[in-house]
Design brief:
With 320 residues, this protein is an alpha/beta fold. It is built from eleven helices and ten strands.
Length: 320
């Protein structure tokens, strides 16, 4: 467990610090992933401006492990008094209900408040890879006797299923290698232990910036401005590979409606700030093209599950 103040009191003038300390208690923002993950990066970007908008100090609390399920469960089991929210994403809310038996209902046990950001899936190869483009990569996947390996953050992740879909659409032999998160996967890619990775762009940005990996294609409806020249799967003729990972603010079921409305409005106003949007994009994250109210964000979660349920079943990963 790791807690960090989003508003750094030691750097405030003493009267201001005293005023904060005398104000409302800190709001806990649970991130179901480790420090340094894409979700954690997002939390560190949004916590200060969101805290300012709400007049609250925000504590970012990392609860990593198990597809994000333990952290999401902590959000679902929290007292619905507005003191605890979560920055939950596709893994615990979208995919886990399809491939696991999480100790919560991803709809009934949560109040879904606001979409914060999306990040596309990126197909990575080592920086010195012999594949200059997706076409060459897929040709090798079809012609090499051993095929190719691709890693993903975990079995049953969106990226795992996107790899299965790419193999089915192209006839390439793509063998999945499951990791627990992206850190070890990126290290194995750099060392040549795996041919390729499918990971969220927000997790891949450090490796791309360091020149340790090269991107061949992205999911999502449009190219990413941070990766000029990298095409989308859709532009290359693979329309089914447009899904992105999303993350948003959720709380336990039963949050007061007035609080939900206030947090949603503050979040959308924060995301409209140019400096916040710029920092998110630099981290491989895309702010929502238009604000979503709580019912619309809840529907996004439900629609994602409906869209990927048959893909999970086809891959033989559906929970019994």
């Amino acid at each position: 467990m790791r807690r960090r103040l989003a508003l750094l009191l030691p750097f405030l003038p003493r009267p201001a610090a005293a005023q904060v300390l005398r104000g409302p208690p800190p709001l806990r923002l649970i991130v179901p992933f480790a420090a340094g993950s894409g979700a954690d990066t997002t939390a560190q970007i949004i916590a200060p401006p969101l805290g300012a908008a709400l007049g609250r100090t925000i504590l970012v609390e990392n609860r990593p492990g198990g597809r994000g399920i333990p952290g999401a469960e902590a959000v679902a089991r929290a007292v619905p008094d507005g003191q605890t929210l979560g920055l939950c994403d596709t893994a615990p809310l979208g995919m886990a209900p399809l491939v696991d038996r999480p100790p919560y209902d991803a709809d009934r046990d949560f109040t879904h408040i606001a979409l914060v950001a999306e990040t596309p899936t990126v197909l990575l190869v080592p920086a010195n890879s012999r594949f200059p483009a997706l076409e060459n990569y897929l040709r090798a996947g079809r012609s090499w006797a051993r095929g190719l390996t691709y890693g993903s953050p975990m079995v049953g992740s969106l990226q795992h299923l996107q790899g299965e879909t790419l193999a089915r659409l192209t006839g390439a032999r793509l063998a999945h290698v499951a990791y627990r998160g992206t850190g070890a996967a990126l290290q194995d890619l750099a060392n040549g232990q795996v041919d390729s990775l499918l990971v969220p762009l927000s997790s891949a940005m450090p490796a791309l910036h360091a020149g340790q990996a090269r991107a061949l294609a992205l999911s999502g409806p449009a190219p990413d401005e941070g990766l000029p020249g990298v095409p989308t799967f859709a532009a290359l003729g693979f329309g089914p590979l447009t899904a992105t990972s999303w993350m948003g603010l959720s709380g336990p079921a039963g949050l007061p409606p007035a609080l939900v409305t206030r947090v949603n409005a503050a979040t959308n106003e924060m995301l409209a700030q140019p400096e916040v949007a710029q920092r998110l994009r630099a981290a491989g994250l895309t702010p929502p093209p238009q604000p979503l109210d709580p019912p619309a964000y809840r529907q996004l979660v439900l629609d994602f599950q409906a869209a990927w349920r048959p893909v999970v079943a086809r891959a033989g990963l559906a929970m019994e």
